[in-house]
Amino acid sequence: MREAVDMTNVVEREPDLAQPWAPHRKRIYLAVAVFTSVVFVGMTLGVAVDLIPPTFTSDVVANLLFGIPVILLPLVLFWDAPGENRTRLDKAAELTLFYLPYTAFSQIGYELMFLIGHPLGWWTPTTDPGLKWLWWQYGLADTRYASGNPWTFALEVVGVATGIIVIVMWTRLVRRSLSTESRIRALWIAFAGIAVLMSSTAVYFLSEVGAGFNDIGQGAFGLWFKFIGENIPFIVLPPLVLFAIHLQIDFLTRQAGPRVAAGQSPKAATASS
């Protein structure tokens, strides 16, 4: 006699596309954001009140303090919690939601101040930058920011405008209540934004390569740490983010199809994320 074996249906877990991070990764993201903000503000105020001299030494120390954590932060994406079993789609969602504010706040925080400062004459040579220290010190490494370079000005405009769009899309994508159709639209806009920023980053670097790095100051530190090192994430991650967004759009579109065929409006269908 053959023994009957009860088979249970295995239901595939729905991915959380809105908040896919484990608690420990979320805490690290927030901790690094707070730490770098404290260093930014502390150094800027310290220089402004003459507590910290705007020397090359303080420049190096500050950049190492906030630069190294920011450069290494994307590696946290690989740190699974005990027992956590993430799918490729889970990782794609987290990479996307990590990178959108990561790049957007960089564009808005840095480029916006340079953009505002150009017509106001903020970036003329000085040894006493005051509250402009954060941007002034980067302009010492990439002198195009302080020289009125038209290419750099154009990249600033593109970076700020695109950064605002990207961060707005991020605020939508982290909402679990966002409908499938709206999530797909937001992902497409984010895809376009990241593609634009990736292209502008390529122009930013390749134009200086073509100039023979003549605009790079502060010697080896300015070239290898500030100009290249601190920008490595913005070179390496964008193609991966574009693929990650593609995976999510593909998944959501395939989900939406059967729902529409069953007579459910795509606007009414909400992603499990």
From TrEMBL:
Q: InterPro entries recorded for this chain?
A: EBP
Q: Name one GO molecular function term.
A: steroid Delta-isomerase activity
Question: Looking at the keywords, is RNA-binding present?
Answer: no
User: Could you tell me the superkingdom of the organism this chain comes from?
Assistant: Bacteria
What's a single GO BP term from this record? sterol biosynthetic process
TM ranges are: 28-48, 60-79, 99-123, 153-174, 186-207, 227-249
Q: Which key words are in the record?
A: Membrane, Transmembrane, Transmembrane helix
Q: Which GO terms describe its cellular component?
A: membrane
Membrane: present as a keyword of the record? yes
Q: What is this protein called?
A: Emopamil binding protein
